[in-house]
Design goal:
This protein is an alpha+beta fold. About 15% of the residues lie in helices and about 30% in strands. The protein contains two helices and seven strands, in the order H-E-E-H-E-E-E-E-E. The strands form two sheets. It has a five-stranded antiparallel β-sheet with strand order 3-4-5-6-7, with no helix packed on it. It is globular. The chain starts with a helix and ends in a 7-residue tail after the last strand.
Length: about 90
């Protein structure tokens, strides 16, 4: 998961190779429609881009890019804060 997030934070580059275009990464992280995803989302809701959510007030003043996931007996949350270059 760390490598996956590093690819997003480096504009689509992983291990020196362009895996996704910078433009594609920016589109995936651009808010398109407002949505509700859970208590971590900004009020009245976070936005959804192309596969990723944008928002998340509890993560700090900057917008976080995130995606929750879960199965029975397992839950996960991928969170990136591009302005801080952290995930």
């Amino acid at each position: 998961m760390t490598r996956y997030m590093r690819m997003y934070l480096s504009g689509g580059i992983l291990d020196g190779e362009q895996v996704l275009s910078r433009e594609g990464i920016e589109k995936m992280q651009a808010p398109v429609v407002e949505t509700e995803v859970g208590p971590w989302a900004k009020e009245p809701g976070a936005s959804y881009g192309m596969g990723l959510y944008v928002g998340g007030e509890p993560f700090g003043p900057e917008d976080a890019v995130f995606h929750p996931g879960g199965e029975p007996d397992f839950a996960s949350m991928m969170v990136m804060v591009p302005q801080r270059n952290s995930g």
